[in-house]
Amino acid sequence: MAEVLAASGVIAHHSKAFWRALFREGDLDLSAGKFLPPLQRWIDQAVGEGKPYFLDAPEVVDEIRSADGRTRKFLLRLRDGQTIETVLMGYDGRHTVCVSTQAGCAMGCVFCATGQMGFVRHLRVGEIVAQVLHARRVLHQTHPTKRLRNLVLMGMGEPLHNIDAVLHALDIISDVRGIGIGPSKISISTVGVVPGILRLAEEQQPYRLAVSLHGSTEEERAALVPVSQRWPLAMLIDACRQYGALTGKRILFEWTLIAGKNDSPETAARLARLLAGIDAHINLIPLNPTGGFAGTASHAGHAFQRILLAAGFPCTFRQRRGIDVAAGCGMLKADKRPRAAG
Ligand code: SF4
Predict the structure, then answer these.
(1) What is the pLDDT of residues 131-174, one digit of tens each?
(2) C-beta of residue 201 within 8 angstroms of C-beta of residue 242
């Protein structure tokens, strides 16, 4: 953004004022009279032209809190009427915001409410950043001393399908002069978009990578994640090995446990063999109720975990948050959206 401003002839002093107003103070009102005339003219022109980096302050259509008060799901309406969801989750000692990167999703994972909506459109840079600003504002109102320190790109959409906008947004979100969420506290989650994984590795992007795997054979995965027909499991695992070799970073593998589909001891043993040699942390996610699939029983989930632990992998269960407000993983489906655009 600073480069955009400089290239547009906005002098550094003005660009700092602009940056501070937007990203440190979270003031999305860019209306006339707030800035010195040269900057205001530039803002008015850029907003009028719909420049993609501009923050589109979304309208908050709805907010639902979980019974325990620790999860808040926001339904946000964008300028063109599309709606997306953003979730603020409170854990012991930290708060995490989960943002959307697309309206709908093209990946069609069979257990995911968003996937069943189909793809509507990519979110713009400003629409991604604005979700973080909204969550931060809400957090400050309720917990004035707390900072928003964690971000996961696990809301609606596949982040690596919209990778240019996502990386631009993360540049802004991680900038210490503004929002300042550290890159190591930002997780990009993908269902296996191989070119995107390789790009993150080649560009040495500083964020954490989470890969939703869900199947230990081509057949098992293809039944749950249709995109694996385009980027098969073998290709995905190869990309993960390259990512690890190039970046030296650990990969978080997400595994949604679905009763009778991918939760057997044999599957756990096969998964351990598949990931052998990769610096991997496996995160088990008991399926949230959606789409007619049942979650794995607790004892079977723990048996699955023991096999992976015995094989030497760190393996944890994701803390469940927001189940009662349909804000858990795979449950986001903006209910008040207009018709799909494409
Ligand atoms: S799980 Fe993620 S990638 Fe798959 S359909 Fe849902 S939002 Fe898209």
Answers:
(1) 999 999 999 998 888 999 999 999 999 999 999 999 999 998 99
(2) yes
